[in-house]
Amino acid sequence: MARKGSIKRQNLHIPAHIILVIYSIIVLFPLWVMVINSFKDRLSIYQNPFALPSKWNISNYSEVIRDGDFLIYFRNSFVVVVLSLAILLIIGSLAAYALANWRGKISRVIYFFCIAGMMLPIKIASIKLLEIIRNLGLLNTIWSLLPIYIAMGVPIAIFILTEFIREVPYELTEAGIIDGAGRFGVFSRIILPLLRPALASVAIYNLVPFWNDLWFPLIFISDDRAKTVLLGVTRLFGQYQTDWSKVLAVLTLSAIPVIALYLMMSKQFIKGLTAGAVKG
Fold first, then answer.
1. 16-64 pLDDT, tens per residue?
2. Which whole number is the average pLDDT over 125-144?
3. Is the whole-model pTM more than 0.70?
4. Would you list the domain boundaries of the chain?
5. Which UniProt keywords apply (predicted)?
6. Any idea what the Cα angle at residue 103 is, between residues 100 and 105, rounded to 5°?
7. 69-274 CATH
8. Contact at 8 Å (CB) between 267 and 250?
């Protein structure tokens, strides 16, 4: 009977696995098409975009790196995204620690005010943001993107980190206070190490929209030396024709940092998503 029960439970998982396999194929197929076409010449892409290249052509990558300014664009994107995520995690964790330990009506109002930003797209204020960035003297620099990206990520960071900190047993905080640690000591020595899965979740959640953002670089930046990767790709789009092989080569290169960071932080990311789901 026990064996029959286990077989039935395994059969119940079959539809879920089928759905996951189909979803994986749907997600990976565009990436597959992008990668294989980045090794083709322009004519081969139009002839059969879904087939493997008859001759693997790496000149698209070498020409993009050698002749263009795409290394500068990668550097700009890397600097902006890394600094934005670092500042975001610092601000978000400190704000979440304060809100999680501040019990009262005012703290709840501030908390709901912060997470209300998750429901309001920041792009609706693009004109006003352009005016603010101009008044700050940051126009046509990569630094114009920092305050925008931080503001984009703060609501979700506070939402995830506050709920995570509230799940930390208060006995740990009491033990730190008894040992003579202050509020910041408790945060840095006890809370912060426990926050690593949640911080990884916040970082990966915001990495993709920061790296793939085209809207705000297009509005704030016109100087070629300050463009980001996706904004630099628009240089390859011509009025009458587009060199798709080079475009796909750049997009393939731009996807590598995101995939690499996810693979490095996948365990922490999964722990952050499942934190609090299982007790005991």
1. 788 888 988 898 888 888 888 888 887 788 888 888 887 888 888 887 7
2. 91
3. yes
4. 69-274
5. Cell membrane, Membrane, Transmembrane, Transmembrane helix, Transport
6. 115
7. 1.10.3720.10
8. no
